[in-house]
Write a structure and sequence with these properties.
This protein has 191 residues and is an alpha/beta fold. It contains 9 helices and 5 strands; from the N terminus they run βαβαααβαβαααβα. Helix 2 crosses helix 3 and helix 4 runs parallel beside helix 5. The protein starts with a strand and ends with a helix. The relative contact order is 0.20. The mean pLDDT is 96. Bound molecules: adenosine monophosphate.
């Protein structure tokens, strides 16, 4: 399987669709948000640094993130492709990912972009706050995360287009429909 980069705003479903793709095709999965939350939970030095950024809805500095990503990638034993969920979030991270994979003789594969209107995003995140109690899922931090997404992450979408690997899926109110479109595209690109 080709590697997959899953890309979209907070609440667009990156984690949910990653799990579905992972289960269906037996791929590896790196969620940088999950990696950071585990560090915080374990009280590590990295966790202490990351907590301030996450609680403020800001991105962790690129140099730190790129290092974490490479270490996590190298520790994976999956042989059937990897899903990158929540990474890259800046152009510097994207360039670093491309280079890191090239050094290992691998490729970025395909990028899956999830487009969801902001009203739906906000209501999903507020719902998740009730269900999972994530510290950064409160209305004030969510607004900051949207602003960071628009200014630092969204411009990456065109970067992927230039790389020739962008595949865009727009939310039309049904998870099953979204999933079937995504699976169809993955299978088309992995004959
Ligand atoms: P997520 O679980 O992907 O929504 O990530 C939660 C938070 O972790 C983000 O709001 C950032 O503060 C941080 N984070 C996760 N991935 C990255 C990344 N690739 N670059 C910088 N910060 C990140």
């Amino acid at each position: 399987m080709k590697n997959i980069i899953i890309f979209g705003a907070p609440g667009s479903g990156k984690g949910t669709y990653s799990e579905e793709i992972k289960t269906k095709y037996g791929m590896g999965h790196i969620s940088t948000g999950d990696v950071l939350r585990a560090e915080i939970h374990n009280g590590t030095e990295l966790g202490l640094i990351a907590k301030d950024y996450i609680d403020n809805g800001q991105l962790i500095p690129d140099s730190l993130m790129i290092d974490i990503l490479a270490k996590t990638y190298d520790s994976l034993t999956a042989t059937n492709g990897v899903i990158f969920d929540g990474f890259p979030r800046t152009i510097a991270q994207a360039e670093a990912l491309k280079e890191m994979l090239k050094e290992r003789g691998h490729e970025m594969g395909m990028m899956i972009e999830l487009i969801v209107d902001e009203e739906t995003l906000l209501s999903r995140l507020l719902n998740r706050a009730k269900e999972q109690g994530r510290a950064d899922d409160n209305e004030e931090t969510i607004k900051k995360r949207f602003a960071v997404y628009h200014s630092q992450t969204e411009p990456l979408s065109d970067w992927f287009e230039k790389e020739g690997i962008r595949n865009t899926f727009t939310w039309k109110g049904s998870k099953d429909l979204m999933l079937s479109e995504i699976f169809e595209e993955i299978e088309k690109q992995n004959p």
